[in-house]
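Propose amino acids for all 78 sites.
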């Protein structure tokens, strides 16, 4: 086999392989999109949970501060 024939054969095989891979990737696209959507949803839910926990912590700290202030006022008025 001459060099130009060898090069064109390799090029043809590479194009066929890329073409088949492209079709396979197109078939996988809905799965990848679904996986990405699920991952984004889980991340958003985790962020919402973290925000809720932080809000709870702030509320708890505010309650403690209010209780301490009430105790100080009570001590001052006694």
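Proposal:
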């Amino acid at each position: 086999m001459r060099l130009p024939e060898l090069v064109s054969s390799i090029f043809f095989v590479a194009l066929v392989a890329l073409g088949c891979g492209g079709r396979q990737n197109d078939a996988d696209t809905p799965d990848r999109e679904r996986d990405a959507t699920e991952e984004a949803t889980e991340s958003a839910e985790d962020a919402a949970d973290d925000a809720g926990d932080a809000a709870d912590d702030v509320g708890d700290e505010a309650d403690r501060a209010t209780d301490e202030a009430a105790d100080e006022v009570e001590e001052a008025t006694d």
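The CA atoms of residues 57 and 63 lie 10 Å apart. The longest helix spans residues 3-77.
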